[in-house]
Structures are given as structure tokens and as C-alpha cells.
Amino acid sequence: MSDYTEIKKDKEPMVYVLQELPGTNTGRPKYNIMGALKYGKLKVLLKENTQIVLSPGPIVFELRRLLKDYNSNDYLLLSGDPAIIGLACAIASDINHGRFNLLKWDRQEKVYYPLEIDLYEKGKMEEPQLKGYN
Asked: Residues 71, 30, 72, CA angle at the centre, nearest 5°?
């Protein structure tokens, strides 16, 4: 068991691109995501036109299969259908004990910034609130 843990820990980080970028089908992607390569090898999970219509079951099953090796060294690049984005974040969090990383695009600086999310992070409720939020 410890050998497997060591192998998994030493693997190259992955950037899971949730869906192909708009325009991929015509060979002209709308966005350039090559800056994300700084954080790991890119792996596209779903086709550009994938959507959740009536039942999320098949997409949940497929995302669980595709994200089964997700770990704390990997990142999600959020692209595509907002419902799929929500599912992918929930699944990555479930697989990795409430923790997942994502890449946030900064339009001004034109660069990706890594964000680490820990849903079970302990903090005091009395901590200062963000301005404009209750």
C-alpha cells in the first residue's frame, strides 16, 4: 500500500480541463490555455458540447471515472457548462477529502493564479467579513 501511495504522490501534476474550449470542434479554440501548462500536464475531460439536460447521472459517473486519480498536486481548469463545473468541484473535493485546487484566470494580468480550496478548513466565525458581504 505504501508503494502505491509513493508512486501516486510522485506523479506529474495534472491540470484537468473540464470541457474542450469553444471552437475546438472547428479547430479554432476561442481561448489560449497554454499558460496553465505551468501547473501541470493538460488533460481535457469532456467534449465541447457536453451538457447536463435531464439526468446528471451519466455525467457524474463519467467525471468520477476521469477524476479518480485526482490529488492535492492537481488543478481544475474550470471551463464549460456551469452545472458540470459544480459537479467536477464536488467530485474532486469528495475524492480528496474536501480539498481541491483550481486555476483562476486574471483578465488584467493575463495569467492563471492557483487557488487552494479546503471545504473543511477550521476557522473562527468571528473572523472579519469581506466588505460588502454579510
From this structure: 10
What was the pLDDT predicted at 128?
59
Position 63 in a domain: yes
In a domain, 130, yes or no: no
pLDDT confidence of residue 30: 85
| Pick from 90, 123, 110, 113: nearest CA to 18 | 90
Distance of CA 67 to the CA centre of its chain: 9
Helix axes 57-66, 82-95, angle to 10 degrees: 50
- What pLDDT score was predicted for residue 111? 94
pLDDT at 134: 58
In a domain, 90, yes or no: yes
- 132 within a domain of the structure (yes/no): no
User: What was the pLDDT predicted at 122?
Assistant: 79
CA-based max dimension of the chain: 52
Domain of residue 73: give its range: 2-16+27-118
**Chain centroid to CA 80:** 11
Q: Which residues of the chain have pLDDT under 70?
A: 1-10, 124-134
The Cα 134–Cα 128 span in angstroms is 10
